[in-house]
Design a protein that fits this description.
Layout (H helix, E strand, L loop, with lengths): L6 E3 L2 E3 L4 H7 L7 E5 L5 E5 L2 H16 L1 H8 L1
């Protein structure tokens, strides 16, 4: 676990990510992060990956299109 401190940045508040966290998330200056809320109320910060989103969209379309075949293969 990494503890971050909320600090003022102009008229806003923000956090500074340590170098090791930036390296693990493969982030560079200008990259986007997404904050999502889990069903249990916890929050998750993740980098945005357009290629992964496109792959997931295609997988969802394929799953719907071939639903019957996938059910038979699962048996």
């Amino acid at each position: 676990m990494t503890q971050l401190k909320v600090r003022p940045f102009g008229n806003s508040l923000g956090v500074v990510l340590p170098k090791d966290v930036l390296a693990r998330l493969k982030l560079r200056s200008g990259d986007s992060l997404h904050l999502t809320e889990a069903p249990d109320g916890s929050m998750r910060i993740t980098p945005y990956d357009p290629a992964f989103e496109a792959q997931m969209r295609l997988a969802q379309e394929g799953t719907g299109k071939f639903r019957n075949a996938l059910r038979k293969l699962a048996k």
